[in-house]
Amino acid sequence: MGPGAKAKAADLQNAYQLGQLIAQRGWVLLTGGRNMGVMNAASHGAKATNGLTIGILPTDDPNSISEAVDIAIISDMGNARNNINVLSSDVVIACGMGAGTASEIALALKGNKKVILLNDNEQSKLFFKDVLPQNIYIVDNPGEAIKTAEEILALHHIA
Amino acid sequence: MGPGAKAKAADLQNAYQLGQLIAQRGWVLLTGGRNMGVMNAASHGAKATNGLTIGILPTDDPNSISEAVDIAIISDMGNARNNINVLSSDVVIACGMGAGTASEIALALKGNKKVILLNDNEQSKLFFKDVLPQNIYIVDNPGEAIKTAEEILALHHIA
Amino acid sequence: MGPGAKAKAADLQNAYQLGQLIAQRGWVLLTGGRNMGVMNAASHGAKATNGLTIGILPTDDPNSISEAVDIAIISDMGNARNNINVLSSDVVIACGMGAGTASEIALALKGNKKVILLNDNEQSKLFFKDVLPQNIYIVDNPGEAIKTAEEILALHHIA
Amino acid sequence: MGPGAKAKAADLQNAYQLGQLIAQRGWVLLTGGRNMGVMNAASHGAKATNGLTIGILPTDDPNSISEAVDIAIISDMGNARNNINVLSSDVVIACGMGAGTASEIALALKGNKKVILLNDNEQSKLFFKDVLPQNIYIVDNPGEAIKTAEEILALHHIA
Question: For residue D99, which residues of chain C lie inside 8 Å, CB to CB?
């Protein structure tokens, strides 16, 4: 999960690497599916490594879908689809920050999902750590994010 | 908007007063509709002052509805209903803090709504002020929240 | 519930009368909220008789809202909002027929709601009567629809 | 798409065959994802032929997911998820009939999707053919359903 139009260059680089690492482990990548920002970069990274990519789209506009998404789920429910994104994920990695990303992190915590934060926004780390400390993991780079995800999956026996 | 089961005593007092003040102005109160926490307290405050109260419920469980809700909208879509709550509001007042409340604030900002924060969680103020500064208003008490709401409505010509 | 752009003249007349009769009983009218077709006509009928009108809108376009809707709930979830319409209603009256109306009737039956059919589409009556006979009531005019609604509410002790 | 708990034996046989035929063509099977009825039978048929199966679940109950679903999308929005099912499908095949299935057919027609009906409910055929004739295809067996789907996909240049 991460920003669309307002993603920073570092977020896009991290997202692309996350997509690669996720695909290398044989995991399925689930994103918001649009052809911009973190969701697009992560999907392209996963496809470059022959991964399977799912996108949960907010609208039914076919032109909004990333070409790197294999399976497009058309929710047509705007940002309410953010709740589906996080409930359908075994682990949530939030790459970058913005209003939409913040809503996904908060909805993930509300749904008792584990969330890994990869960004340079210190306020976001302090805030979400305060909301539900035991569900928040703070990392510095994509490799650390994936290692943390592996530990969470092993600990919680998620397939 | 505000916490359900985990609302603090101060949040409930503020919510009750907000409900009273909203009803006194002839405004319609819209909450998450459940019979607990901030949504319940605000609805009771509004009814004590003969206001009209709407509740957007997450489930179709009739026992979950606050008795102070006049009109129950049954979304049956869990926390995705938080997006409906904020999109249907002219101004969002967030009273207290938690994962669900954070998701409503973030979804409100994503939908370009003005959000008034009334809580004692300093991290939340720093964080949301950072996400979209021009849409966040920080207040210290219910009276100030309503005064701020009046100014926002006047400035933006919202009926 | 009923067609928008494709409503027939008879549907609009029936809808306006239904709105009037609903308001006269002090009931709240809930529709799909748009400024066209059956939802618009019913809302205008209710307002002509000083009723309270709720509209559950499919999009966040402010220009799509009927001016006869007092309280606009912005779902921004397209036709998935049809499920909210029926779950939030004590009794569903389907006035006219079309794909959207058929989805509301079917979702109402799935949610075990009582549905009153007022239209001249014989296939729709045969079909929905076949799907769940005990929940379908067929009427010939608005007055009969309201009388049937009163009987359903009395029998099932719905407030 | 098709009934869950109330599916008939013939529906389950047809669904299993549909799953097999869909997987044999290299298509992705999308169903409602639950471990009962037509969605379960179709998913098992597809997995028996090494297909890829997606399920859009109505609740977040992990025990409700068919073991033949590869990728579970957790909507947690009840029957409103039926709209996502049809909007995310290139072609909708309705196997069997019931209130939920009727809602999916109606929502598919509302979204201008092509719908293939495979059932022995004559009223449903007459009714949906009346609602939007150019989008309804009536078939007698799974093989004919797949042949019709191929023709629709070819005609409309759907990948």
Answer: 106-107, 109-110, 131-132
